[in-house]
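A further point concerns the way the authors explain their paired sequence and structure data. Nothing conveys this as quickly as seeing an actual entry. An entry of this sort, consisting of the sequence and the corresponding backbone structure tokens, reads as follows:
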Amino acid sequence: MTTLGASIFSTDISTAFHPEMTSLFWNQRRNPILKRLAVSTEQLASTATTVTSKTTPKRNFVEKESSEAAAFSTATAVKSKTTSTGTTYLSEESEGNRKSLKDYFDEAKDMIKADGAPPRWFSPLECGSHSPDSPLLLFLPGIDGVGVGLTRQHQRLGKIFDVWSLHIPVKDRTSFTGLVQLIERTIRSEHNHSPNKPIYLVGESLGACFALAVAARNPHIDLVLVLSNPATSFSMSVLQSTISLLEFIPGQMTLTLCHILSSMTGDPLKMAIDNVVKGISVPPTIQDLSTYLSVLADILPNETLLWKLELLKSASAYANARLHSVKAQTLILYSGKDQMMPSEEEGQRLSRELPNCQTRRFDDNGHFLLLEEGVDLVTIIKGAGYYRRGKCINYVSDFIPLTTTEFNKFCEEIRLRSDLTSPVMLSTLEDGKIVADLSGIPSEGPVLYVGYHNLLGLEAFPMVQQFMIQRNVLVRCVAHPMFFESKDGGLPDFEGNDTLRIVGGVPASAVNLYKLLSSKSHVMLHPGGMREALHRKGEEYKLFWPESSEFVRMSSTFGAKIIPFGAVGEDDIAQIVLDYNDQMKIPFLKSQIEEMNKRVVKLRTDITGEVANQPVHLPLPIPKIPGRFYYYFGKPIETKGRKQELRDRKKSQKLYLQVKGEVENCIAYLKEKRQNDPYRNILPRLIYQATHGFRAQVPTFEL
């Protein structure tokens, strides 16, 4: 042992290892973001005087002492590049920097060496790039207890969270209650330090039980729980029967570890297919699996495995008995192919038991979800609308720009729609010339795009996609609040809701529009709202706008450009066969609509007329042989320098009617011009693409 005051390195560090560790140590000392970490009193007593001096050449983390705690830092250099056009950007990420399952075992092997200290927190060095106002995220590990179960997530989590992980040493026998108290002391300390920030508890399996227990005991603290395959179903798992077998048949341990390892490595067939598609390395070899099994045996020797199973048993019983006390915002991630626990059924049960809970299902994944390929925890949290830096989510300041991976996935999700409709984008230059691209769109915000809402909002996502591709501009969609609410007051969770949140959708409100324009954003607004998107038969392209100029004066406050636009094509895609009026004549559908509208958030309750008639329902359309979508963006209308002028109600109303008239003109222009498009029908487009390549841009009518 060596005294902390002298050095944290032993005198026998190898020559090959020493330069790397010295560099890491000084990087850590110079990093002001690696803050003090709260730990138990027992830990402070244990670590205040000495640290382990035995270090091996392969060790990739160092120990750091602060006034309150000892912290380990795993070291992986992460660089990210961000490009921007105006006020929006798409952050780039390198898939080569994403870690693998092998990294988990390598880091776990290093973490457990010469580890005789009590449970404690460590902060990965690669998670040190977050901003000062980032919320705290505490990772509570599963049965392994090592604390590196987020290793494949560290690169992205570290940019938006202050990440701490709990490490439970192999030989530690702290009781469940003792571990809960350790976590509890930490969150209370951090809550007192930053009372207006949420604290995130990411619990995997056993760690999910810890998170639920702490949340039940501290309902007054703003906690956000993200639970991956919670072990609250332990009594129904295959591990339950393992306890007695391990006690009387020690040889059973190898089979148990093999079962755990198979849950970590995932479905071999799925992995092989994914790797072929993505062009990456093959699944783990027999030699790799043998190495993993050896490391797993070191992490969970027979006595430790028995202890952890007993810990699981008591943790599950404790958490289940206190579910009624959990008030925290909760997101449950459950796998469809969990071989260790019935996670799918358990996720659905917990969703019913917990009052403020959402779930996300992962059909083809196993128990150790966060270690599997293609699972991005940041994207999941963003999609659920769970990321916030304060007591309430701020859809402007809390928004996290898309990564290239997220944008590519978004494009993949709407590819069929885009391929079938082959959108045509027209814009207007400053001299009034119409061009067949988006070069007439300003780069700098704020810009407000005001237009007609097609049936079911079919035009919105292709527009967002093309703006990103052609102009590197992210258009923020203003949508009905029901797409952002969970359970009561909102729509059932489905993938489209997550996509809307990820690409920057914002609930419709005057406050949110104010924030967007003040931040120089590009904003898509449909004054007709849901009345247009859920219109009746024969109402295609009819505007249902309020009488008052809702957006004009706010635009002039920030000097925003207003761009009227028309989008045409819904009548070439589908035809409504059952609209609202038809459905209200069918008793079963009528009762469903009435029940839904009792729960959904209502807008424009202070006005009358058709625009206020926005009952939520789902029109029943039948598809047509696909036609084509056309977008026409008119000449930008300047409001900069007109703030005083547009305070006059008559003048602002005049501009409002001008914008409305321009939208109607854009729609009329497209409806007329599309008659001359030789590629309006899908068959000529397919022939053209078969000749010129399926990624080729199909021509349109002459301008």
In short: The domain at 404-571+626-692 is CATH 3.40.1130 (Glycerol-3-phosphate (1)-acyltransferase). The longest helix spans residues 649-673. The radius of gyration is 29 Å. The chain is about 35% helix and 15% strand.
